[in-house]
Design brief:
The chain is α/β, with parallel strands linked by helices and about 250 residues long. Helix content is about 55%, strand content about 15%. The chain has a single domain, classed as 2-enoyl-CoA Hydratase, Chain A, domain 1, CATH 3.90.226.
């Protein structure tokens, strides 16, 4: 099943999350995203990447809790490590990346958007946030580190510590997103920005981006293994199981 639809607009690859309406993240989806990111990274004809959704309701709801909660610990570990690797790969992709957010981007979906260089979101009731604390689990470590780098420690403290969802204007004020646009302009403007950046000298752009992300990447990788094990233990705890099962009722 194709869960990532790839389209091309001149030299920009548009990767569309296409798993039902919510784009809930499971192993199949993140594995396909990893494969597609590798392809566009290796393709010299692709000069920019836009990550978006195939629908206007959800960019991504985050982890597929109903599916993942049933997995044995070792199987969940495979999913979680794959997801974190995808986040790091997207964050460090040596080409301009855009998140065209036409619907809600929460939890693990919000983190995918944060891993892009720029985030353009549709105006209106399109929410973003990291509600992991309300589920009894920490924010995945790559997302935690990247968020702090994007918005600063004070805003990151508020976002992760409260687990609230925010509307576009608040997100813009906090620095989570770069532009708030009418819905129909989000994808075209994201493609246009990717084209603009992709037309710049590639090696120079790649080094400028590398200089920006390499310290964060090194910080993530240094402690990622132990942070992953802590997350997995939290995910398996009685407290988290209770909260996750409550969340499933609203999923």
């Amino acid at each position: 099943m194709e869960l990532i639809r790839t389209e091309f607009c001149d030299e920009v690859a548009v990767l569309k999350l296409s798993r039902s309406i919510t784009n809930a993240l499971n192993l199949q989806l993140v594995s396909q995203l990893a494969e597609n990111l590798q392809k566009v990274s290796d393709d010299s004809d692709v000069q920019g990447v836009v990550l978006t959704s195939s629908n206007e309701k959800f960019f991504s709801i985050g982890f597929d809790i109903p599916e993942l909660i049933r997995l044995p610990k070792d199987d969940f570990r495979v999913f979680y490590q794959t997801y974190n690797r995808v986040c790091v790969d997207l964050y460090t992709l040596p080409k301009p990346t855009m998140a065209a957010i036409t619907g809600h981007a929460v939890a693990g979906g919000c983190i995918l958007a944060l891993c892009c260089d720029y985030r353009f979101i549709a105006e209106g009731r399109k929410l973003m946030g990291l509600n992991e604390i309300k589920l009894g689990i920490p924010v995945p470590y790559p997302g935690d580190c990247i968020l702090q780098h994007v918005v600063g420690t004070r805003n990151a403290r508020e976002i992760m510590g409260t687990g609230e969802f925010y509307d576009p204007e608040v997100l813009l004020h906090m620095g989570v997103v770069d532009q708030v646009l009418p819905l129909k302009q989000v994808l075209p403007e994201s493609i246009e920005k990717a084209k603009l950046l992709g037309a710049l000298p590639h090696e120079a752009f790649g080094m400028i981006k590398r200089n920006r992300v390499e310290t964060v990447e090194a910080h993530i990788l240094k402690r990622l293994a132990e942070k992953e094990e802590f997350f997995i233990e939290c995910w398996s705890s009685d407290e988290a199981r209770k909260r996750l099962k409550e969340a499933i009722k609203k999923f």
